[in-house]
Structures are given as C-alpha cells and as structure tokens.
Amino acid sequence: MDVIKIMPCLDMKNGRVVKGVHFVDIRDAGDPVENAAFYEKEGADELAMLDIAATLENRKTRLDWVKQVSSVISIPLTVGGGINSLEDIELVLEAGAQKVSMNSAAVKNPDLVREAAERFGSDKITIAIDARRNPAMPSGFELVVSGGTKPVGKDAIEWARMCQGLGAGVILPTSMDGDGTLQGYDLEFTKAISDAVDVPVVASGGAGTLEHFYEGVTIGGADILLAASVFHFRTFSIRQVKEYLRDKGIKVIL
C-alpha cells in the first residue's frame, strides 16, 4: 500500500471558506489564508481550494484567492471552479497552484482534458466527478454538473474511465448523497471509481468520524482522503486522523 495523504478542502464563496450539506445550506468556516497556513502546520499533505460558485455565476476562479493561499503554503495546492480553457489552467498554475481540478468544463468538452494533459502534464490535471444515485445508469451513479444542479444522463463510472484515458492524473469523486452529512464517504461510489481507474482517487464528501477515514482507504480504495467540515470546525486535527490511520496499519507521513 502506498502512503495515504490527507487533503483538507477550502470551499470558497465571496472570499471566505464555507461549508454546506448536500451542496446547499452554506455556513461560514473562516478565512482561507489562515486556514491554509494552519492546515500545513498541522501536517496536511495537500490542500484543495474549490471556488464553488464560479460555474454557477458563469465566471472564472478568483486568481487573487489562489495567490494569497499559495503564498503561505509549500504543500501541493489543487484549485477548481470555473476552469474552462487551457488559458484558465495556465493562469491558475501561474498564480501558485500545482494542480487544477475540472468538472463541468470537462464534461462539456472532453477534448479539454486531453489537451490539458498533453500541455501541462497528467499530474497537473484532476477531474472532479460529482454524482448521485440513479438506478437507470449502468453503474447506478449519474454524473451531475454545475455545482450539483444539473444531471447530465451520463454514467459517472464510465466517465471516470474515459477521463483516465484522456490523460487525467487524479480522479476526485464526490457523492451528492453524502456531501457534508458527516455520515461517511459514499464507499460504494468511491470503490466503483477506484476499481475502474489506475490513477490516484480522492475520497470526498461526508467524513465525520475517524473510522470514516479508515473505511475510505480499506473499503473505498482511496489514495487521498479529502475532508472539510471535521477540520474547519476542529472536530479532529489532521494529526489525530493520521495517528489513527497509522495505528490501524495505514501508511501515512506524520
């Protein structure tokens, strides 16, 4: 087993970190720069920053947020939200991100994934896959876009396979059924994705207990464990999560 990484996630809106449940009921969770510096000090392996309103508001990611956050950390930063072109990717990487995360734009134009991987390298390209349960889909999971507001009639697991084929270096699946609920990662969905691809998979959406992190690895097959609420509201420290995983036999960097 490879080393498992912990990735706090800063969901951004109006210059603040926010957190919702099922992508709605948003509440404030602090200043992004303070949070970023705090998480690096705590032992985060990577950091995600997602501009959750960019696509819905039909605008680009706020580059000043990326610059401010990247200036206070040395760990890899993945930035997503409103990234629609090779130029957008270039600007975000120049602003200090190590990776970009695309969702709606990739679904709309799959060639963008291939072009981005060829130009910037697969390791820079993360594809976020939001899905909800739908028995009409072959895998039982339907792809949704635009911040979880639009189902697209496409099988989410098949899309993950396609993204890997196009050159994506990381897949970040989030189950809308679990997001922000603290009831645990959607292990069935995470496992279906990790079984379908060979690239690193990020477990995301719903971590609420230490056991949930362990299950994300042992049942879900994830390589990176993303969480927001439990870190923002100080339910657990990153060190607590890592020590728990280490004591259960999971390789982590303390």
Structural notes for this entry:
The protein has ten helices and twelve strands. It is an alpha/beta fold. It has one domain: TIM Barrel (Alpha-Beta Barrel). Strands 1, 2, 3, 4, 5, 6, 7, 8, 9, 10, 11 and 12 form a twelve-stranded mixed beta sheet that branches. A hairpin with a 2-residue loop joins strand 1 and strand 2. The mean pLDDT is 92.
**What is the share of helical residues?**
25-40%
Number of domains: 1
- By secondary-structure content and strand pairing, the structural class works out as alpha/beta
Cα shape:
globular
The CATH topology name reads: TIM Barrel
The CATH superfamily label reads Aldolase class I
The CATH architecture would be Alpha-Beta Barrel
User: How many E-type strands?
Assistant: 12
The rounded Rg comes to 16 Å
Terminal CA distance reads: 16 Å
Please trace the helix and strand order, writing H or E for each element. EEEHEHEHEHHEEEHEHEHEHH
The average pLDDT is: 92
CATH classification class: Alpha Beta
Sheet with the most strands, sense and barrel status = 12 strands, mixed
Weakly predicted, low-confidence segments = none
What fraction of the residues are assigned to beta strands by DSSP? 25-35%
Summed up, the helix count is: 10
